[in-house]
Design brief:
Length: 399
């Protein structure tokens, strides 16, 4: 079943929609649905309140970050009332736990999101689950609500990802059972960039398709990182590799780290797929050590002491992203750099105003946009080293 123009079948008189999670992705979903004339409530899971999201609000505040920064007066309603009245509940919370705590954190928020749902409600789960994860979600929902999914309520799997570079013609939305709500859901989400060409399939097929999509992209990236680590110091940086991979930054590389970890946790045994997934994760996580090793080499070549050096990590992070993989990777980078350098801070490339200091300055650009922003600031008038967080860790001295 393919998405199309469903505007004729979507009247404004339909029951409200709830988006559970004040995340970047959740706000994007809520804004797109509100723009089509539907009543939408956006739930801030940390504050336990439901925000009535009207079209004029989404026009004034195009992102959740702008909404939170301005703190406008908004119409609120009780969370339980909003969920009880909803026809669809999109589950898009911010996840900041790591390791074994991730599943418990998601389960706790899912409990909160479904405890007040009514018969006929459709639940749309937008986090990746790996292989078989939706079976656990369905069992939990049925246990908590007493409803049977497929007859009393409905469940969909729609993993939202930021892999914009992937040539993916369709988003396969997993459905617990074919029902009349399928067409309506495709109509609700058709304005989202990720879902403009969507198909409804069974949930297991959607799980496998998402895993394949992730691995097709990231096994190649991990291989690139591992090979570039073999660059000899006498060839550093390799011009050929620099020309080919110079614009591949850690910001893009780390986009799917959460997804990979979820896939890894869903696998049992030690077969080829587990080796492939775990090897890819190690390749990405090991990049931080590689970057610091290259930084040591740069300082050695420039005859600079670590004690007389400060490092600025130029990385524009979205603190409201649904998945906290980039935030976690930055924390790891910051911690390990402080073990070596001591004087480390983070600033977005767009606000990188560097003033004279008695220390040598190294700026690590972690995305293409941050590097471009650095080049446009007045910081290029100061003596400093700009290092790209790409596979070859290219470093240039500005003076």
């Amino acid at each position: 079943m393919r998405g199309g123009d469903f505007s004729l079948s979507l009247g404004t008189s339909s029951k409200p929609v709830v988006v559970y999670g004040l995340s970047t992705e959740g706000y994007r979903i809520a804004s797109a649905i509100a723009a089509r004339g539907h009543k939408v409530s956006l739930i801030d899971e940390s504050a336990r309140m439901a925000i009535m999201l009207k079209p004029e609000i989404t026009k004034t505040y195009p992102t959740v970050s702008s909404l939170l920064e301005d703190e406008p007066l908004l119409e609120l309603e009780p969370v339980d009332v909003a969920i009880k009245m909803a026809s669809y509940v999109f589950f898009s919370p911010k996840v900041r736990k790591t390791g074994q705590d991730v599943r418990a954190d998601i389960s706790s928020k899912l409990r909160d999101a479904v405890r007040s749902i009514s018969p006929g409600t459709s639940i749309v789960f937008t986090l990746p689950t790996g292989i078989g994860g939706n079976t656990e979600n369905i069992a939990l929902i049925e246990h908590l609500t007493g409803f049977v999914i497929g007859s009393d309520i409905y469940y969909y799997y729609m993993p939202i990802t930021s892999l914009s570079e992937i040539n993916q013609p369709d988003l396969l939305v997993g459905s617990s059972s074919s029902n009349k709500n399928d067409l309506h859901l495709l109509g609700l989400i058709q304005d989202l960039p990720e879902t403009q060409d969507s198909n409804i399939v069974d949930i297991y097929s959607a799980e496998l398709a998402h895993v394949i999509r992730i691995l097709e992209h990231y096994t190649g990236l991990a291989s690139t990182l591992e090979v570039c680590k073999q660059t000899r110091s006498s060839e550093f940086p390799s011009q050929v590799l620099q020309n080919r991979y110079g614009d591949l930054y850690i910001d893009e590389i780390s986009n799917g780290l959460y997804d990979l970890r979820v896939v890894a946790s869903s696998l049992s045994g030690a077969g080829p797929l587990a080796y492939l997934v775990n090897g890819t994760i190690k390749g990405i996580e090991g990049y931080v050590k590689h970057l610091i090793d290259r930084l040591r080499l740069v300082l050695k070549k420039a005859e600079l002491k670590a004690s007389r050096t400060r490092v600025i990590i130029a990385w524009t992070l979205d603190q409201n992203e649904m998945k906290g993989d980039k935030i976690e990777l930055f924390s790891t980078m910051e911690s390990r750099l402080k073990d070596y350098i001591g004087d480390v801070e983070r600033r977005p490339g767009s606000s990188l105003d560097i003033y004279p200091t008695d220390k040598n300055t190294v700026v690590i650009a972690c995305s293409k946009d941050d590097f471009s922003a650095i080049s446009k600031t007045n910081s290029h008038n100061l003596d400093m080293i700009i290092m790209k967080a790409n596979p070859v860790c290219e470093a240039k001295v500005h003076e």
